[in-house]
Design goal:
Blueprint (H helix, E strand, L loop, with lengths): L2 H33 L54 H17 L5 H8 L7 H10 L2 E4 L6 E4 L8
Antiparallel strand pairs: 1-2
Helix pairs in contact: 2-4
């Protein structure tokens, strides 16, 4: 190895060591902030005159242990007091149906995504109430799948 190659190798080793120290300090600061502790200031850079470490060629360097993620905050329960996956009561379904009919009569021809967004629920939560309204003949659907538009059905006419 020539003298220049040795100097290049020494600079690379020095750079890698400094970068490793900075990354380790950044990880420690991130964990400290997540846990609410005061982060430590960044470690000062190594002195320029410090000799470079020799590279290990026989063993692989051990990776730093992974930091555990901060625990996720629990979601607040729904305002109606139902837990996830529990069934809606008949009163809740009727209230949603009434809300749907009022919205559709005021805004005919809207797709389910817009109706659900305006009512503050997901379109999946509207499947059952809209299905009941269609079966009862109160609401009619034009189109298929995502192209469906909803209208209030005319009185005296039941369409399936």
């Amino acid at each position: 190895m020539t003298n220049i190659e040795k100097q290049i190798e020494a600079h690379i080793q020095k750079f890698a060591a400094e970068l490793n120290d900075l990354l380790r300090q950044a990880a420690i600061n991130a964990v400290s902030e997540a846990l609410g502790a005061n982060p430590q200031p960044a470690a000062p850079a190594a002195k320029a005159a410090a000799p470079a470490r020799k590279a290990r060629t026989t063993r692989k360097a051990k990776a730093a242990p992974k930091a555990k993620a901060a625990p996720k905050a629990k979601k607040a329960p729904k305002a109606k007091g139902r837990g996830k996956g529990s069934r809606r009561s008949a009163a809740e379904l009727q209230a949603q149906q009434d809300e749907l009919v009022a919205f559709i009569s005021a805004n005919p021809g809207q797709p389910m995504e817009k109706i659900a967004k305006a009512l503050g629920v997901t379109s999946g939560e509207m499947n059952r109430p809209i299905g009941k309204l269609i079966d009862a003949g109160t609401v009619r659907r034009e189109g298929q799948r995502r192209a469906s538009r909803y209208f209030v059905a005319k009185k005296g006419r039941k369409k399936r």
